[in-house]
Design brief:
Shape: rod-shaped
Strand content: 25-35%
Number of strands: 5
Mean pLDDT: 84
Helix content: 40-55%
Order of helices and strands: HEEEEE
Structural class: alpha+beta
Number of helices: 1
Low-confidence stretches: none
Oligomer: single chain
Number of domains: 2
Distance between the termini: 97 Å
Largest sheet: 5 strands, antiparallel
Length: 114
Protein backbone atom coordinates (compact mmCIF):
# COMPACT_ATOMS: atom_id res chain seq x y z
CA UNK A 1 0.00 0.00 0.00
CA UNK A 2 2.90 2.31 0.53
CA UNK A 3 5.04 3.36 -2.41
CA UNK A 4 8.67 3.80 -1.68
CA UNK A 5 10.12 7.23 -2.55
CA UNK A 6 12.77 5.69 -4.82
CA UNK A 7 10.12 3.95 -6.94
CA UNK A 8 8.06 7.17 -7.22
CA UNK A 9 11.12 9.15 -8.37
CA UNK A 10 12.05 6.54 -10.98
CA UNK A 11 8.51 6.58 -12.39
CA UNK A 12 8.53 10.40 -12.54
CA UNK A 13 11.88 10.48 -14.36
CA UNK A 14 10.66 7.96 -16.93
CA UNK A 15 7.56 10.08 -17.59
CA UNK A 16 9.61 13.23 -18.09
CA UNK A 17 12.01 11.72 -20.64
CA UNK A 18 9.08 10.46 -22.72
CA UNK A 19 7.44 13.91 -22.49
CA UNK A 20 10.01 15.59 -24.75
CA UNK A 21 9.53 13.01 -27.49
CA UNK A 22 5.78 13.30 -27.06
CA UNK A 23 5.94 17.07 -27.49
CA UNK A 24 7.89 16.72 -30.72
CA UNK A 25 5.44 14.15 -32.05
CA UNK A 26 2.49 16.38 -31.15
CA UNK A 27 4.04 19.41 -32.94
CA UNK A 28 4.96 17.45 -36.06
CA UNK A 29 1.49 17.71 -37.69
CA UNK A 30 1.46 21.49 -37.21
CA UNK A 31 4.87 21.81 -38.83
CA UNK A 32 3.75 19.63 -41.75
CA UNK A 33 0.61 21.74 -42.24
CA UNK A 34 2.70 24.93 -42.31
CA UNK A 35 5.07 23.41 -44.89
CA UNK A 36 2.13 22.39 -47.10
CA UNK A 37 0.56 25.87 -46.84
CA UNK A 38 3.88 27.47 -47.72
CA UNK A 39 4.35 25.48 -50.91
CA UNK A 40 0.69 25.52 -52.00
CA UNK A 41 -0.34 29.06 -51.06
CA UNK A 42 2.36 31.44 -49.86
CA UNK A 43 5.12 30.72 -52.38
CA UNK A 44 2.92 30.94 -55.53
CA UNK A 45 1.39 34.21 -54.27
CA UNK A 46 4.85 35.70 -53.73
CA UNK A 47 5.85 34.63 -57.25
CA UNK A 48 2.75 36.30 -58.78
CA UNK A 49 3.41 39.50 -56.83
CA UNK A 50 7.01 39.60 -58.02
CA UNK A 51 5.95 39.10 -61.65
CA UNK A 52 3.32 41.86 -61.37
CA UNK A 53 5.83 44.25 -59.82
CA UNK A 54 8.31 43.56 -62.64
CA UNK A 55 5.58 44.15 -65.23
CA UNK A 56 4.49 47.41 -63.58
CA UNK A 57 8.08 48.66 -63.37
CA UNK A 58 8.60 47.93 -67.08
CA UNK A 59 5.31 49.43 -68.34
CA UNK A 60 5.79 51.58 -71.45
CA UNK A 61 3.80 53.73 -73.83
CA UNK A 62 1.32 51.70 -75.87
CA UNK A 63 0.78 48.94 -73.28
CA UNK A 64 -2.75 48.14 -72.17
CA UNK A 65 -3.31 48.18 -68.41
CA UNK A 66 -6.02 47.34 -65.92
CA UNK A 67 -6.14 49.45 -62.77
CA UNK A 68 -7.07 48.21 -59.32
CA UNK A 69 -10.44 49.92 -59.78
CA UNK A 70 -11.15 47.96 -62.95
CA UNK A 71 -10.47 50.66 -65.53
CA UNK A 72 -8.94 49.39 -68.77
CA UNK A 73 -6.94 51.66 -71.01
CA UNK A 74 -3.83 52.32 -73.07
CA UNK A 75 -0.74 53.92 -71.57
CA UNK A 76 0.09 57.23 -73.26
CA UNK A 77 2.75 58.59 -70.92
CA UNK A 78 5.03 57.03 -68.29
CA UNK A 79 6.68 58.90 -65.43
CA UNK A 80 8.60 57.71 -62.38
CA UNK A 81 5.60 56.94 -60.16
CA UNK A 82 2.65 57.72 -62.42
CA UNK A 83 1.23 56.70 -65.78
CA UNK A 84 -1.24 58.47 -68.02
CA UNK A 85 -3.94 56.14 -69.29
CA UNK A 86 -6.26 56.81 -72.23
CA UNK A 87 -9.65 55.30 -71.43
CA UNK A 88 -11.40 56.51 -74.57
CA UNK A 89 -11.11 59.14 -77.28
CA UNK A 90 -9.56 62.19 -75.59
CA UNK A 91 -10.32 60.77 -72.12
CA UNK A 92 -7.09 60.52 -70.17
CA UNK A 93 -6.48 59.86 -66.49
CA UNK A 94 -3.35 59.70 -64.40
CA UNK A 95 -2.80 56.74 -62.11
CA UNK A 96 -0.14 55.71 -59.64
CA UNK A 97 1.89 52.77 -61.01
CA UNK A 98 1.35 50.80 -57.79
CA UNK A 99 -2.42 50.69 -58.46
CA UNK A 100 -2.03 48.78 -61.73
CA UNK A 101 -3.44 45.27 -61.42
CA UNK A 102 -2.42 43.92 -64.83
CA UNK A 103 -0.16 44.95 -67.70
CA UNK A 104 -0.76 43.65 -71.23
CA UNK A 105 2.23 44.44 -73.47
CA UNK A 106 1.49 46.16 -76.78
CA UNK A 107 0.64 43.76 -79.60
CA UNK A 108 -0.34 40.80 -77.40
CA UNK A 109 -3.94 41.73 -76.61
CA UNK A 110 -7.01 40.47 -78.46
CA UNK A 111 -8.18 42.66 -81.34
CA UNK A 112 -11.27 44.71 -80.69
CA UNK A 113 -14.57 43.86 -82.39
CA UNK A 114 -15.11 47.47 -83.48
Amino acid sequence: MFISPAYAQAAGAAGQSGGAAGAIVSLLPLVLIFVVFYFLMIRPQQKRMKELQNAVNSVKKGDRVVTGGGLIGKVTKVEDREVEIELGTNVRVRAIKATLAEVIPAGTGKPAND
